[in-house]
Design a protein that fits this description.
CATH topology of chain A: MetI-like fold
Shape of chain A: globular
Domain ABC transmembrane type-1 (chain B): 78-291
Number of strands of chain B: 0
Distance between the termini of chain A: 41 Å
Transmembrane segments (chain B): 16-41, 82-104, 116-136, 164-187, 219-239, 270-290
Radius of gyration of chain A: 23 Å
CATH class of chain A: Mainly Alpha
Oligomer: heterodimer
Structural class of chain B: mainly alpha
Structural class of chain A: mainly alpha
Pfam family, one (chain B): BPD_transp_1
Distance between the termini of chain B: 55 Å
CATH topology of the largest domain in chain B: MetI-like fold
GO biological process, one term (chain B): transmembrane transport
Strand content of chain A: under 5%
Order of helices and strands of chain B: HHHHHHHHHHHHHH
CATH superfamily of chain A: MetI-like
Number of strands of chain A: 0
InterPro entries (chain B): ABC_transporter_permease, MetI-like, MetI-like_sf
Chain lengths: 273, 300
């Protein structure tokens, strides 16, 4: 095969793979604008013949999905900000501050990475219940406010900060916390953006733990609300697609905006093994 | 603050522990303690009565484990989970590798747009796209069966047929996840020196030979990493069957975590559910060790 012919074949194959990958998402968006019942006709329509916003209106008025949207936003936002700060403090200390027992404690932490979170979920539920946090956003957030993975990523990055910079600040009389705030945090900015994207998307998309903790539909996060909605509205294809769009589009936009940072995180997290 | 080495040493020790303590405290209380308590819980008969009054719970030794081993539900869930891991795992790694080779091919245009497009299912909300796929799998109106019929193939009742429900979940999960490992493979491919390919080409090696003798060995460490991470993730199968099939039809898609969830949070048999969780942990640990050992043997 000649080079142009080969290029054509390869690019056509790639385009086909990309289209097949995107069809479910495109169909989701398209069906969400179809009038009730239109998606279930033959042959399946690919674009709405008479586009309508009625499902979005129904979701945000009759079905009160806005509340669930705000719950998700609150839980993901607070978890991201608080965990970023706590993980950054710890990750930096494990990388740069010299203290006895540091490396042993860090090794123990890394062992915890292989234990799936579900293993501790039953006692965790009993604890959350004991603290009176069942059916509250705090109950959902509490276990995610520090993460071994986050500490690990920040430590890897912080190892690259030159000691001379920190020592110079110490000679100038800066306290360790001032050094952290004025020198270290700005230097960690790229990895903090990466982790923020990971943390926000991870919390937004999380399902099992919020499903366990939340029992009142007004307190549900979007994924839990959606899973419960599909129980009653399984026949309302177009409505459910609108619900899926409302859930997925915010994280897709966030990913598109932060794609460089996010992809760097995927690759960094994979170097460690 | 003095600049003498001993003075900074003391402040650094204090600051060090101060900086790590919020994280260690949270991880200790909300991760380490629950895991340890979970192990203890698995040796008790903690149930809905104990939920009201914990003093009712008694230590029953290994009774939960003995019951699990003789429970057909458990063996079904284990079989389903292993089908998902052993069937879906290699399939998903192969899909990732194939996509990575395509995206990385020299002749391909618009690489960065392509990468983002293929990666996008990874960042979507699992529950939401599982619902989307439920409709795509619909035997009458779904796009997938419509495409099959268009190709002259028989339509399949994907989620309604006990033989097809797990393959349907596997297919969905490959779509959802292949982009992640694809990125890791692309990075691995870019680490293989171009000179190796040039040298092989001069020696007259064809495309397949170059793939077999340069690309595959060059990706060796990447395979181990991708294999272990994929497998650990796949053993945690839960939301897909919960949303798409509720474990059915005929319990053919109940996974270990779904069984744990049902036993623990629907029937409130927390002791029994904790035992399931620890059996899962043991399986994950053994499988991880086996995979690492296999890869090491292969490299010799």
């Amino acid at each position: 095969m000649s080079r142009p012919a080969r290029a054509l074949v390869v690019n056509a194959a790639v385009a086909a793979v990309a289209i097949v990958t995107l069809v479910p998402l495109l169909w989701m968006v398209s069906a969400s604008f179809m009038p009730p019942g239109a998606a279930n006709t033959m042959p399946p329509p690919l674009v709405p013949r008479t586009p309508t916003l009625e499902h979005y209106v129904a979701l945000f008025t009759r079905l009160n999905l806005l509340r669930n949207f705000l719950n998700s936003l609150l839980i993901s936002g607070v978890t991201t900000i608080v965990s970023l700060f706590i993980n950054a403090l710890a990750g930096y200390a494990f990388a740069k501050l010299r203290f006895a027992g540091r490396d042993r404690v860090f090794q123990l932490l890394v062992v915890g990475l292989v234990v799936p979170a579900q293993v501790g979920m039953l006692p965790l539920f009993l604890m959350v219940r004991g603290l009176g946090l069942v059916n509250t956003p705090w109950g959902v957030m509490i276990a995610a406010l520090a993460s071994i993975f986050g500490i690990f990523m920040i430590r890897q990055y912080a190892l690259g900060i030159p000691d001379e910079l920190l020592d110079a600040a110490r000679v100038d009389g800066a306290s360790e916390f001032q050094i952290f705030r004025r020198i270290v945090l700005p230097l960690l900015r790229p990895i903090l953006v990466t982790l923020a994207a990971f943390s926000f998307l991870g919390t937004w998309n999380d399902f099992l733990w919020p499903l366990i903790v939340l029992s009142d539909e007004r307190k549900f996060t979007l994924p839990v609300a959606l899973a419960s909605l599909v129980g009653e509205h399984v026949l309302d294809t177009e409505l459910m697609m609108a619900g899926a769009v409302v859930t997925v589009v915010p994280v897709l936009i966030l990913f598109l905006v932060l794609q460089r940072s996010y992809i760097r995180g995927v690759l960094m997290g994979s170097v460690k093994g | 603050m003095s600049a003498d080495p001993r003075g900074t040493h003391v402040t650094q020790t204090r600051a060090g522990w101060l900086f790590v303590s919020p994280a260690l405290g949270l991880i200790g209380v909300f991760f380490v303690v629950p895991v340890v308590v979970g192990l203890l819980l698995s040796f008790t008969d903690f149930d809905i009565y104990a939920l009201g009054d914990p003093s009712v719970a008694r230590i029953v030794g290994v009774r939960n484990y003995a019951q699990i081993v003789s429970d057909r539900e458990f063996w079904g869930a284990l079989r389903n989970t292993l089908t998902f891991v052993l069937g879906g795992g290699p399939l998903s790694v192969l899909a990732s590798l194939g996509a990575a080779l395509l995206v990385n091919a020299r002749l391909v245009r618009f690489k960065s747009v392509l990468r983002v497009a293929l990666f996008s299912p990874v960042v979507t909300t699992l529950v939401a796209v599982a619902i989307v796929w439920r409709y795509l799998y619909h035997p009458h109106y779904g796009l997938i069966d419509f495409a099959l019929r268009g190709l002259g193939l028989p339509a399949v009742d994907w989620l309604g047929d006990p033989h097809w429900a797990m393959p349907a979940i596997i297919l969905f999960s490959v779509w959802k996840n292949f982009g992640y490992n694809m990125l890791i493979f692309v990075a691995g491919l870019q680490n293989i020196p171009e000179e190796q390919y040039e040298a092989a080409r001069i020696d007259g090696a064809g495309g397949w030979a170059r793939f077999r003798h340069i690309t595959v060995p060059g990706l060796g460490p990447t395979f181990l990493l991708v294999g272990v991470l994929t497998m650990i993730g796949q053993f945690q199968l839960f939301a897909e069957p919960y949303v798409m099939t509720a474990g059915g039809p005929l319990r053919s898609t109940v996974s270990l975590i779904l069984l744990m969830y049902e036993q623990g949070f629907r029937w409130w048999r927390l002791g029994y559910a904790a035992a399931i969780a620890f059996i899962l942990l043991a399986i994950v640990l053994v499988a991880t060790l086996v995979q690492m050992r296999l890869q090491r043997l292969e490299r010799r």
